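Lab notebook, page 48
Experiment: co-folding of the full assembly
Goal: obtain a model of how the components sit together before planning crosslinking
Operator: M.T.
Materials (sequences as entered):
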Amino acid sequence: MKRAIILIFFCGAVCFAHLPAVCLAGQISSTELINNAKEYDGKSVVYVGEAVGDVMVRGDFAWVNVNDGENAIGVWLNKELAGEIQFTGSYQAKGDRLDITGVFNRNCVQHGGDMDIHAESIRKMGSGRLAGEELDITKRNYVFVLVAVLCLTFIFVRRRKSA
Amino acid sequence: MILKPQLQDFKNIGYYSGRIIVGISLTMLVPMVVGLLFGEINPALDFLIGAEIALFIGLILTRLCFTKKDLNWMQGMVVVSLSWLAAMLVGAIPLYLSGHWGSYLDACFETMSGFATTGLTLARDIDHLSYAHNLWRHLIMFIGGQGIVVVAVSSFAKGLSGAFKMYVGEARDEKVLPNVIYTARFIWLVSIVYLILSTLVLGTVGIANGMKPVNAFFHGACLFMAAFDTGGFTPQSQNMLYYHSLAFEVITIVIMLLGAMNFNLHYRIWTGDRREIWKNIETRTLSITILLTFLIVVIGLSQVGSYPSALIMFRKGFYQLISGHTGTGYSTIYARQFIDEWGNLAIVGLIIAMALGGGACSTAGGIKMLRLGVIAEALKQDVRRIILPERAVVEQRLHHLKEIFLEDKQVRAALLITVSYLVLYGIGTLIGMFYGYSFLESLFESTSAAANVGLSCGITTPGMAAGLKLTYIVQMWAGRLEFMSVFTLIGFFVAVVKGK
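Observation: model returned without errors.
Model output:
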């Protein structure tokens, strides 16, 4: 019995140790991917972040750059999958938050050596929205104060000129 | 004996610096208007505040220091070096107010990086930066690339005979046309024509690549400004990797090479003298150094075997090399990949390319091709002197716009600036190592900052030590102005303190 438990434990440990080589089920940050690109190259990864910039459709596929707050990584995905993205991050909008499962490529052969992720599936974790901009009252007040200071300066300049 | 500067010296310096600051305040109105057009109210206010503060300082200086006297050489040099610092301080105001820079020092770093056409960035979350702030980051590269003083000289200088002294102080010792104001205007004409053409081409390619039309043309204009002025900022955090496009890479390579070309060569092309390109020592030297450094990069990359095919290795290696050699700093790989995947030899090849730079009287930084050509010709002359009989008269000629006989004073000037650059690269490396980075990383980042390149191996981040930020600011400033005006400013301060 004792031997059987040790054997099961050993087998379990071996399987667990080999798991990352097959599929890295846990979410991985962009920094982790970039700094350990060799380790993750060609493996399935889960990457979560905000879609930013343009959804660039190229034939039946599209590029979406996804930023996890540390870096942005290009995600190559099916055009239909890209169609689910409504908002992309910019000054005026908060982009959709995406959970991407796909193959990470350190130097993608298909895309001229770019570091990218070829998405197999995406899941929208949170919908983006337009970022409404509220007038910053402090900045507005600074503008008025400075206008007043500039008016006084112009008067000073003109007086010295006429003098 | 050192002479203490007179009141008139301060008045001249204050007056002309004030005029340049007024000019900078007016340029801030461009991003302000763009911000309003895109409905970005708070960013527009940032630029209005920045413009008001700059205008206030400029007006006070021009009024208090009002003079009709012309600049002498010392004053001209001091005006240039001080104006660049003043431009950094006022230009950083709208960036700091945006909240995308962690401190005012970070915003100053970004502004100096922009004006000096370096391209190292400390911005946080560029992907959510407003159009107005992004435009300003690229516009300051456009202004800095032509030269802040060139902007002032070409826009509101009227009969300013001291303009040439400031023009030289801004590392432009060659005139394209006999009159410095016409030269400045020609530089602008070239830049504006290329800006319009390149924006149209890049914008169209952007749309074909799936970008929204507004974004495509905005990115097109920004990319041109940063590529032609060998700057290196981009509107997105991934730099050129954002576009995933071979077409963008090819077009920007052409623009970067155009930016690294001497404006005199542009003039020759525009006036139909295309043969000058092939005869000119700068073009020849640039071709040779690109070939040699690319060879080093290729051997280095082959040794490491990071790239899966020769074509990919060529594409990645050549793009980063041209970007580094021209002093642009565009990148299609992540900063960390240089250290992790390129290997020491390829990195050294790239560092050499960055250190050498582009053409004289261009927007590129670094030692420059003309100086390198002069030094190489002088070396050839010395070798011939040794080989030939002692009585033989050895003359060395080089072709730069015309046939020139090599003189010792030219060699001395070229060597002096080259040594100054090497010392600047070295000091930055030592300081980088002091902060705990490896020799190669420190050398890479220091060379990139001092030669106004902008490629990074990962040291330049918002979390970088303040001492290192200040070091790189000084390196970018001194490297862009090519030392003489900076040395003159130091001499001026010594004279103020110790002069009699």
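Interpretation: Chain B has a mean pLDDT of 92.
Next step: discuss with group before ordering constructs.
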